[in-house]
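Hey, resending since the last one bounced:
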Amino acid sequence: MLVLTLLFLATGAGDIGNIESHVIERINSATVDLQPFPHFVIDKVFPEDSYPDLLNNLPDDDEFVSPDECRFGLGLNAEGFVRLGNRKRNYWESLSAWLLSEKFMLSVSSIFYSHLKLRFFGSEEVQLKSSASLGRSKTGFLLGPHTDLPHRVITLVFYLPKTKTHLESGTSIYKSRDPDFKCVGGPHHEFSNFYKVSTMKYLPNTVFGFFKTDQSFHGVEPWEDAQFTRDTMQYEISDPNRAAYY
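The structure tokens again:
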């Protein structure tokens, strides 16, 4: 039996009951599609009456950390919270209190338990830790097909649009044109070397989750609408004993 040791840090206090229970219930209802790698998509992941509040508390552009004009990010941690005003900081500290909890990590991990056993075959005990961040992307952004960093185990991408007007801007999943090609993780590859299997529609209040493998190729294709902003929240479960980069 594989025993999971979960390393977590509660980041704030707040009313975590109804929202947490709803999200866990929705995620536990997931049906995992195994092709081309283990993944799922769930709608209505947050309670419908709480989703507008989440959108209203998204950071302004100048509250994010931005390496360039099309990528914006903010860690849901102490370093990120200090960039926010009181109202938004209190909101995200409260949400992170359950998002980064042991209970939530166990719920997400249980969906992929059989895959965890294969990845950590021969290990009697496995340590896992979680982290989360907010992301914003604008015209010029793209992510070539990649499997994720080597230390990643499970990733959830929460889609946070206000409308259904840019469905094509969700995460796409790919298969290599070379069926034997594998990547331990890190580099992004050329779109031309892959077949696009499908695109997870960028719908309000939806989450895309997947288990990291050496063929979990996914990416985001560029868009032309200069007025479009792509908001997401990313949750990651990682192996703290494995280097993030080679």
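Residues 8-15 have pLDDT under 50 and may be disordered.

Sorry for the duplicate.
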